[in-house]
Structure formats: structure tokens, C-alpha cells
Write a structure and sequence with these properties.
Cofactor: a divalent metal cation
Structural class: alpha/beta
Family: Belongs to the trehalose phosphatase family.
Oligomer: single chain
Bound molecules: ligand L263DTV3
Helix content: 25-40%
GO biological process, one term: trehalose biosynthetic process
GO molecular function, one term: trehalose-phosphatase activity
EC number: 3.1.3.12
Strand content: 15-25%
Length: 210
């Protein structure tokens, strides 16, 4: 595999995209305690020394930054709906603006409202945890008794009946609620490649680990 990457990268700029949970950090019961090790942080720091590097995650961008703690990287939080990073020219231009792109910003009030609704709807289910990821929401059931999973899904589904502009998907022991927009992690990758100057380029090898 490594040799294939080396061969494919000849003459090309590698751009690294790294998922967070289960990739940089182990999967743990409490999402607020999914810390990465110092060794992993140093490995990411090393990678970023050589290649433009982005963290791409379903989490809130600020939250993942508080775990990774590395400046100079791109961060695409909320499943790619919250992108921030240094501009390509930052070393050479005094007036550079940091990159910021939030294609779902009009959904913020709705997400905040639904977050409160979901807290209320799930409070009777022991172990359920609602996480506000800014432009999307996660409802965790890793610590919920399996017998209660259907009841939890029912509560979440019924809450969303009033919000046709939001959709529900499932991840690893988590229900994920996000706006119905034509945007996802893949689009975030394309956006970042374009802002790095590699739109439709044959001179780039994007590597996604996640
Ligand atoms: O799209 P991802 O970046 O993979 O994000 C998916 C979810 O990741 C986090 O939850 C997962 O990791 C937790 C900590 O290890 C674990 O407790 C949980 O069961 C996993 O689903 C994050 O907390 C969620 O908000 C993301 O939706």
C-alpha cells in the first residue's frame, strides 16, 4: 500500500485529509473525552510539515481543534460545513485573510432549536447524549441499553418530523442530524483542494485517512 502511494505521488503534491474519531483518536464511550495521544499529535505535526493537512470531521470545529491543538492546519468540522484554515499565501502577504467557509450558516438557529428539543426528548433515556456540533447534531447511543435503541430512534425521528429541512443518518452508535444541503465531506475536500490551487489538477494526490 505504502509503495502504491509513493508511486502514485511521483511529481505530485500530496494533500492529507485526516478524520478524527477512530482515526486520530480511539473510539471511547464519552465523546467529550476522545483525546488523541501526544505521539499521534506529533505524527500529525510531522505530516503537516511536509504536506498541506486538513482534519475533516463530523464534530464541531472548535471542539476538534481543542483536541488536536495544532495551528497551521485546515479544519473542516460539522461534516465539512465549517471550514477554516490558513490562506495559501499567509507566509508572503501581510494582509492575508484566514480561510473561512460555512455553507450552512442559515441553519444555525434551527440547529440550536432542534438541539434543545432533542435534549428534552431524550432525557428519559439513560445513557443518551446529545452533542451540538454547531451545524449538525449527534445523538449518541453507545451507552444506551440496546433494548432502548428503538425508543431513542423513535424520539429523534418524531422530533425531526417538524423539521423537513433536516435529515437523519447513522454513524458508529450515533444518530446524526444535519441540514439537507448539497454539501458533505467530499465537497469540503474539493473546496480545500481548490483553495490550495489544485482545482481539477493532475498535479495533486489527495490522501484521505478515515
Ligand atoms: O464523521 P466523523 O468525524 O467520523 O464523526 C462521527 C462522530 O464522531 C464522534 O462520535 C464517535 O466517537 C465517539 C468518541 O470516540 C464515540 O463515543 C461515538 O460512539 C462515535 O460515534 C462524535 O462525537 C460525533 O459527534 C460524530 O458524529
Amino acid at each position: 500500500m505504502f509503495h502504491q502511494i509513493v508511486n502514485a505521488s511521483k511529481g505530485k503534491q500530496i494533500v492529507m485529509f485526516l478524520d478524527y474519531d477512530g482515526t486520530l483518536s480511539p473510539i471511547v464511550e464519552d465523546p467529550d473525552r476522545a483525546f488523541m495521544t501526544n505521539e499521534m499529535r506529533e505524527a500529525v505535526r510531522d505530516v503537516a510539515r511536509y504536506f498541506p493537512t486538513a482534519i475533516v470531521t463530523g464534530r464541531c470545529r472548535d471542539k476538534v481543534y481543542s483536541f488536536v491543538k495544532l495551528a497551521g492546519l485546515y479544519y473542516a468540522g460539522s461534516h465539512g460545513m465549517d471550514i477554516k484554515g490558513p490562506s495559501k499565501t499567509r507566509k508572503y502577504k501581510k494582509d492575508h485573510q484566514a480561510l473561512l467557509f460555512q455553507p450552512a450558516s442559515k441553519f444555525l438557529p434551527m440547529i440550536d432549536e432542534v438541539y434543545k428539543v432533542l435534549i428534552e426528548k431524550t432525557k428519559s433515556i439513560p445513557g443518551a447524549k446529545v452533542e451540538n456540533n454547531k451545524f449538525c447534531i449527534s445523538v449518541h447511543f453507545r451507552c444506551v441499553d440496546e433494548k432502548m435503541w428503538a425508543a431513542l430512534a423513535e424520539q429523534v425521528g418524531s422530533a425531526l418530523n417538524d423539521y423537513p429541512k433536516l435529515r437523519l443518518t447513522q454513524g458508529r452508535k450515533v444518530l446524526e442530524i444535519r441540514p439537507i444541503i448539497k454539501w458533505d465531506k467530499g465537497k469540503a475536500l474539493e473546496f480545500l483542494l481548490e483553495s490550495l490551487g489544485y482545482a481539477n489538477s493532475n498535479n495533486v494526490l489527495p490522501v484521505y485517512i478515515g
